[in-house]
């Protein structure tokens, strides 16, 4: 592990020195890379990066705004509060691709239709952002992440209004949009829905939906400036393959199991004419902890979509309905 960290540190140092001294040729190609989802929850949404490929100068670098360090002091506390600091990484293209090749995740590429001057400006801004004093930023899953940062840079460099013929999920709520990637029936989606409040049901504007890599990819593919100049001159893209949730891992199945357990205990209580307070404790304590978590995230964190919503009532309502077997006699 120490050898790997030392290697990455040396690689970052060499990359910094290379970038500082590198001048681009007019044949440089700058591309938007869109990476397919992975198995981990944080990877379900895919990833976005920028590739700078200048074969004449033997330069092939990927700028990646998705770097974070689990070893940061109080990482999990900061993560819960929404105060996670990400940073811009710059690695050789072959190194960046290695992880995706090993996990068989496709990486799609769209070559930006930039003039040599625009390519130079974008390169200079990436190098400037990569400097140690500039590379860190306060990550926000919805408003400031690995997809929004490259898009903002591209829009600034193009220096014009960018529109797209791809409407995609404009007008869709954040909740529904995110559900497409977590899986409507997954336990992860159920947990997210319990944490999300009314703000998650707000319809997204055209630009607000670009926080997810796949949507940005399709948007950029059909995007153009006000004079009709397309943003992309070459591309190889495809849709994300979203894993389906098996029935035994779905939230309706486990909610039904919970209801059956409570109903069975209620029948037992009815037969013996005694209320099982242990069941109320076993069910009530986790739900009380959930309410404490939602309260904390709502009032003491930076997470923009968290809040109290009606979905928090589903669990106690199911519990009450199953308990009616004992209550109504």
Q: Could you provide a short overview of the structure?
A:
Helices cover 46% and strands 15% of the residues.
Radius of gyration: 24 Å
The neighbouring-strand order within the major sheet is 6-4-3-2-1-5-9
Mean pLDDT: 88
Instruction: Tell me the span between the first and last alpha carbons.
Output: 64 Å
**Would you count the extended β strands for me?**
9
Structural class: alpha+beta
Low-confidence stretches: 1-7
Tally of helical runs:
11
Shape: elongated
**What is the strand content?**
15-25%
Helix-strand pattern:
HEEEHEHEHEHEHHHEEHHH
How would a textbook summarize the main sheet? 7 strands, antiparallel
Helix content: 40-55%
Overall description:
The chain is of the alpha+beta class and about 325 residues long. The protein has helices at about 1-20, 75-80, 95-100, 115-130, 150-160, 175-180, 185-195, 215-220, 250-270, 275-300, 315-325; strands at about 30-35, 45-55, 60-65, 85-90, 105-110, 135-140, 165, 225, 230-235. The strands form two sheets. Strands 6-4-3-2-1-5-9 form a seven-stranded antiparallel sheet. The protein has a two-stranded antiparallel ribbon with strand order 7-8. A hairpin with a 4-residue loop joins β2 (about 45-55) and β3 (about 60-65).
Q: Which key features would you list for this structure?
A:
329 residues; alpha+beta; two-stranded antiparallel sheet; 11 helices; 15% strand; disordered N terminus
How does the SSE layout of this entry go?
Elements: H1 2-21, E1 29-35, E2 47-54, E3 59-67, H2 75-81, E4 85-92, H3 93-102, E5 107-112, H4 116-130, E6 136-138, H5 148-158, E7 163-164, H6 174-182, H7 187-195, H8 213-221, E8 223-224, E9 232-236, H9 251-272, H10 277-300, H11 314-327
Antiparallel strand pairs: 1-2, 1-5, 2-3, 3-4, 4-6, 5-9, 7-8
């Amino acid at each position: 592990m120490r050898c790997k960290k030392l290697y990455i540190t040396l690689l970052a140092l060499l990359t910094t020195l290379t970038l500082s001294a590198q001048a681009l040729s007019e044949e440089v190609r700058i591309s938007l890379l869109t990476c397919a989802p992975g198995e981990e929850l944080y990877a379900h949404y895919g990833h976005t990066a920028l590739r700078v490929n200048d074969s004449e100068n033997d330069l092939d670098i990927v700028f990646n705004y998705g770097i974070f360090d689990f070893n940061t002091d109080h990482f999990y506390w900061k993560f819960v509060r929404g105060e996670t600091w990400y940073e811009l990484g710059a690695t050789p293209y072959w190194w960046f691709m290695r992880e995706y090749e090993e996990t068989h995740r496709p990486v799609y590429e769209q070559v930006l239709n930039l003039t040599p001057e625009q390519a130079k400006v974008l390169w200079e801004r990436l190098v400037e952002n990569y400097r140690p004093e500039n590379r860190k930023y306060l990550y926000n899953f919805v408003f400031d992440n690995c997809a929004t940062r490259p898009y903002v840079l591209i829009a600034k460099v193009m220096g014009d209004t960018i529109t797209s013929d791809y409407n995609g999920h404009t007008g869709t709520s954040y909740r529904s949009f995110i559900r497409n990637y977590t899986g409507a029936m997954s336990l992860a989606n159920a947990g997210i829905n319990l944490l999300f409040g009314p703000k998650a049901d707000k319809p997204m504007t055209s630009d607000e939906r670009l926080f997810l890599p796949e949507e940005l990819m399709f948007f950029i593919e059909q995007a153009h400036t006000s004079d009709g100049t397309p943003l992309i001159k070459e591309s190889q893209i495809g849709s994300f393959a979203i894993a389906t949730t098996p029935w035994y891992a779905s939230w309706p199945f486990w909610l039904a199991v919970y209801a059956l357990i409570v109903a069975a205990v209620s029948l037992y209580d009815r037969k013996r004419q005694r209320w099982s307070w242990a069941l109320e404790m076993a069910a009530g304590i986790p739900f009380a902890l959930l309410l404490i978590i939602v309260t904390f995230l709502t009032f003491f964190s930076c997470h923009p979509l968290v809040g109290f919503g009606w979905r928090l009532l589903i669990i106690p309502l199911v519990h009450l309905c199953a308990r009616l077997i004992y209550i109504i006699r």
